[in-house]
Amino acid sequence: MRQALNRLYDIAAVLAAMFLVALFFTVLLTIASREFHWGLRGLDGYAGYFMAACGFLSLAHTFKRNEHIRVTLFLGMARGRARFWIEVWALGASTVLAALFAAFSVRLVMQSIEFKDISTAMDATPLWIPQLAMALGTVIFAVAVIDELFTHLKNPDRVNDSAEALRHE
Hints:
This protein has 169 residues and is mainly α. The protein contains 7 helices and no strands.
């Protein structure tokens, strides 16, 4: 199960990297089209879609590698069982929020399909297409947060310090 979850997070990260490369080429094409007076409209919208896809699909991978920003003020002062329970509370609250975010993202995609919602820009892209990356990213992120909660509950002695916190201590 651990290998499958890690593979899922890695696949999402690879997709995020692919969208980052697509964003780069879209911005490059936008600049070239303006410089050479081509009529390529709608590229700004696609750059935004690619940027959002990159951000949402990278959430789980970043979280599982302890690279998300964490406020460790109380956690750093706590020791033993208190630290364990503060971490359980934080991961529990994160699980609820991530699950709600994922549910609303999936619902947004379903509503966009139902109402045939399209972009107001020149490209008139069906909005469920770019929203799909957001929904997929938030669902994978919710899985990662739940995974982290269960991992923490199974290993109460495990200390989960972020690299950022370690650099500043």
